[in-house]
Write a structure and sequence with these properties.
This protein is of the alpha+beta class. 52% of the residues lie in helices and 26% in strands. The chain is elongated. It starts with a strand and ends with a helix.
Length: 156
């Protein structure tokens, strides 16, 4: 199984050499892959159960996974390396790398839409106050005039 590693140098006898150490994120991804694709009854935990892994990969080749508070897009596939040798390949990309700018643009568009909606609502309220309320008073005067009550004309 290949994973992300960091190289540290060691100098014990005057000779420097690199030591490959698996990072914590890779261990978390390995745990997720084993839980999802490896058969619990398999005696060798390094070998995935082919039928179970093949069915799972076919059903859901791409999914989202949260690791250490970061949302990742995971894509998996089975690759045949020989006649009977298969490997489970996993590609993990932080979601923010792919959709970060889209999410920011969506949030900005949502804020602009809310602002425009609030502005239009204020304009409609202003039109109501400036146009409809005076028309209401005019309707009341016209109602009085149709009843031949001309007192409203004398008072104005």
């Amino acid at each position: 199984m290949v994973e992300n590693t960091t190289v540290t140098t060691s100098n014990t006898t005057g000779v420097s050499y690199g030591i490959s150490e698996v990072d914590a994120q890779s261990i978390l991804f390995q745990t997720e892959m084993k839980a999802r694709y490896y058969n619990a009854f398999n005696l060798d935990p390094r070998i995935p159960d082919f039928q179970a892994a093949s069915a799972a990969v076919s059903a859901e080749p791409t999914y989202d996974l949260t690791v250490d508070g970061t949302l990742w897009i995971i894509t998996v596939d089975l690759v045949q390396l020989g006649d009977y040798d298969y490997s489970l390949i996993m590609l993990a990309i932080p979601r923010v790398e792919v959709y970060g700018s889209i999410d920011k643009a969506q949030a900005r568009a949502r804020a602009i839409s809310i602002g425009i909606s609030a502005g239009l609502a204020a304009i409609v309220c202003g039109v109501f106050v400036l146009v409809v309320l005076p028309l209401s008073a005019l309707v009341q005067q016209m109602r009085e005039l149709t009843n031949f009550n001309f007192a409203t004309l004398e008072s104005s």
